[in-house]
Design brief:
Strand content: 25-35%
Order of helices and strands: HEEHEHEEEEEEEHHEEEEEHEEEE
Distance between the termini: 54 Å
Number of strands: 19
Radius of gyration: 20 Å
Bound molecules: N-oxalylglycine, manganese (II) ion
Strand order of the largest sheet: 1-2-3-17-9-19-4-7
Number of helices: 6
């Protein structure tokens, strides 16, 4: 009887409605009424639907261990192993799925990546042929100010392009560079280069269709060492600059101010993100997972 009562209780919690509150910006919604350690199938479906509708979802007030973060992430699919740290080390012994974004130094070694500087607009790991479809960032320590993360909708950016520009980019492929990360640091095991024609990376279509929503989006990756295949370098740079002018516009973006316990899940195909710098003497610790993509972008 006790067991039965417990089961009924768990079902009651699971049946609680989820509130979806749009940020009012081009993308992003906050989901309320969730404990991500204990969600049922219907709650998961609601999260997934909100995520497709809003591209980025925020859930506040969570208390997740690395195992909880991994378990919630796995509901969306298999996880990627995190890229190794700038120092060549893995982040968390025994948990290769966890990537740490942090400026904190312990015994002379950074515990995570990206330092305290700006992280420029990018998508995660799009230098791979099959980039992660989503990333999740969970806030463990946040600085008193700075370090905000902004997201932009690459659906909205594509829609805003003038027709002439859409015609000029149709059918082009873009190199997503694998030399530097978004903090400007050289990736482990890679030779420094600033020639985008020869730098390591992956070629993807510049305009892709989202596999779940069917919507067209601009797929830019990162500005540094990007290259439009087949064009001469000057033409490629000029066209990329023209496209990147749209990315910087505030009407396509939503800026998140972090609190401890925030979890943000973004669609890594139809959004890009960037991070503001913050005071290097303050502490910021975020743990991230990435969900594997199912196929190369098309
Ligand atoms: C990331 C990332 C920015 C931030 O984890 O992929 O870009 O706000 N993080 O820490
Ligand atoms: Mn990132």
């Amino acid at each position: 009887m006790v067991l039965g009562a417990k089961t009924a209780g768990a079902r009651d919690i699971g049946a609680a409605p989820i509130e979806v509150i749009s940020t009012g910006a081009a993308l992003g919604a906050e989901l309320r009424g969730l404990d991500l350690r204990a969600i049922d199938v219907s709650q998961f479906k609601a999260i997934e639907r909100a995520w497709h509708d809003h591209q980025v979802v925020l859930v506040r007030g969570q208390s997740l261990s690395d195992q909880d973060l991994i378990a919630f992430s796995r509901r969306f699919g298999d996880l990627d192993w995190a890229p190794v740290q700038e120092t060549g080390r893995r982040f968390v012994e025994g948990l290769p799925e966890i990537y740490i974004v942090s400026n904190v130094i312990v015994n002379g070694q950074a515990i995570g990546s990206l330092g305290a500087g700006e992280a420029v607009w990018h998508t995660d790991m799009s230098y791979l042929d099959v980039p992660p479809m989503a990333s999740m960032l969970y806030a463990i320590e946040v600085p008193p100010s700075g370090g905000n993360t902004s997201f932009c909708s690459m659906y909205a950016v594509y829609e805003a392009l003038p027709d002439g520009l859409k015609d000029r980019i149709a059918g082009l492929k873009i190199k997503h560079d694998g030399t530097y990360n978004s903090g400007g640091y050289l990736r482990q095991g890679v030779t420094a280069t600033d020639d985008p024609r020869t730098s390591p990376g992956a070629l993807h279509p510049l305009v892709c269709t989202h596999p779940d929503t069917g919507r067209p989006m601009l797929y830019l990756g990162r500005r540094r060492n990007a290259y439009l295949a087949g064009l001469d370098l000057r033409q490629s740079e000029a066209l990329l600059d023209e496209l990147w002018d749209f990315v910087a516009r505030p009407e396509f973006a939503w800026e998140h101010v972090w609190r401890v316990g925030d979890l943000v899940l973004w669609d890594n195909r139809c959004t890009m993100h960037r991070r503001d710098p913050f005071d290097a003497s303050a502490r910021r610790i975020m743990h991230r997972t990435q969900i594997k993509g199912s196929a190369a972008p098309v």
